[in-house]
Amino acid sequence: MTYLVTGSKGQLGSIFVDILPDDLVIGIDLPEYDITDVESVRKVFDCNSIDYVIHCAAYTDVDGCARNPEQAMLVNAIGTETVANLCAEYDATMILLSTNEVFNGNKLYSYVEWDEPSPINSYGQSKLAAEKITEEVLDNYFIVRTSWMYAIGGVNFLHSILKLARFGKEISVVTDELGAPTYANDLAIAILELIKRAPYGVYHLVNSGNVSRYGLARRLLDLTGYNSVDIQPILLGDYKRDSRPPRKGILANWEAYKYGVVLRPWQTALEEFLTNLRYL
Ligand SMILES: NC(=O)c1ccc[n+]([C@@H]2O[C@H](COP(=O)([O-])OP(=O)(O)OC[C@H]3O[C@@H](n4cnc5c(N)ncnc54)[C@H](OP(=O)(O)O)[C@@H]3O)[C@@H](O)[C@H]2O)c1
Predict the structure, then answer these.
(1) What is the pLDDT at residue 278?
(2) What does pTM read for this prediction?
(3) How many other β-carbons are positioned within 10 Å of the β-carbon of residue 175?
(4) N or C, fewer C-beta in 10 Å, the chain?
(5) Using CA atoms, how far apart are residues 173 and 217, in angstroms rounded to an integer?
(6) Integer Cα distance of 145 and 155 in angstroms
(7) Pocket test for ligand 1, best of 56, 59, 111, 191 (most atoms within 8 A of CB)
(8) Are residues 208 and 180 in contact, defined by beta-carbon separation less than 8 angstroms?
(9) Which is the closest atom of ligand 1 to the Cα of 149?
(10) How far is residue 212's CA from residue 54's CA, in Å, rounded to a whole number?
(11) Is it true that the peptide bond before 31 is cis, omega within 30 degrees of 0?
């Protein structure tokens, strides 16, 4: 089996490149390969026999997407259409990475795979468009929604909080945004299991449980020796940013569970992330 990973320099893509055998994985990313430029991606399909495309490339800056909705649509939706069309032409199975931000966050309980998406920001709208395009173009696809992903060295909430603590800066974090933090290493392994065991379709894959952004930041600082560092609790309504996140964008891995794909609690995943961080 040969895997093509788009966005191979990003948080999740780089993990696939690390854990898959070298002779079975091809990684593509900017600037050499741009998913909005069909010819740059086509040549990879022309020269290789690809079985799976793990499509991680995306414009993932949620506030950036709010400021540049056309760019969000271009990369996340039109770029996905390019990749999906090539998968159809070359008979490759596509795994599209999607997000909890396709939901509006107003549901009382966790979102299951068949809940109706209703995104409230440009990023979520562009990712939902990517999902719809994938479903229209392909029969052989997995859509994997995840949330609050973090990896060592990636651009993510955990590294941002640690940086503020390290430099003694004031830290304010919202108490009323809830989600499931997901360790990218766990997610990558779960995706590889899922595509072996489960039929095509839409899946949620997050570490189990949920927490507020504030609760996550507090746990992180307590585990890293910053117990005495204060975090100012604030409300989403008082936090000035360009995009609005779903207030309760909690995913439940209902479908994956049926096929024995289970992720551990976010607390233990976070501890392992910190252990691995210390070894670097
Ligand atoms: N991070 C999360 O919390 C989260 C949550 C839910 C879902 N997801 C989804 O999971 C996937 C992976 O996320 P991630 O956190 O690993 O993202 P990431 O770290 O931002 O990586 C995305 C990669 O795609 C590249 N890219 C951007 N535009 C491209 C283009 N036009 N052509 C080719 N490559 C392009 C980026 O390059 P540059 O860095 O140079 O732009 C980056 O290397 C994404 O589809 C994302 O929407 C992420």
Answers:
(1) 84
(2) 0.98
(3) 14
(4) C
(5) 8
(6) 19
(7) 56
(8) yes
(9) 3
(10) 29
(11) yes
Q: How far away, in angstroms, is 116 Cα from ligand 1 center?
A: 24
Which pairing describes strands 211-212 and 178-179: parallel, antiparallel, or unpaired? Answer: antiparallel
Going from the Cα of 229 to the center of ligand 1, the distance in angstroms, rounded, reads 31
Nearest CA to ligand 1 atom 19: 10
CATH architecture of 3-156+179-209+249-267: 3-Layer(aba) Sandwich (3.40)
What is the mean pLDDT for each group of 10 consecutive residues in the chain (280 residues)? 97 98 98 97 97 98 98 98 98 98 97 98 98 98 98 96 96 98 98 98 98 98 96 95 97 98 98 89
DSSP 106-126: --SSPBPTTSPP---SHHHHH
- Token digits of residue 39: 């010819």
Determine how β-strand 149-150 pairs with β-strand 93-99: unpaired
Pick the closest to residue 251 from 219, 203, 216, 212 (CA basis): 203
- In the reported structure, the alpha carbon of residue 60 is separated from the centroid of ligand 1 by a whole-number distance in angstroms of 5
Output DSSP code: residue 77: I
Distance CA 141, CA 85 (A): 12
Cα(276)–Cα(280) distance, integer angstroms: 7
CB under 6 Å to ligand 1: residues? 7, 9-13, 29-30, 33-36, 56-60, 75, 79, 97, 99, 127, 146-149, 154
Instruction: Kindly give the distance from the C-alpha atom of residue 213 to the centroid of ligand 1, in angstroms, as a whole number.
Output: 21
The two counts, helices (H) then strands (E), for the chain are 11, 12
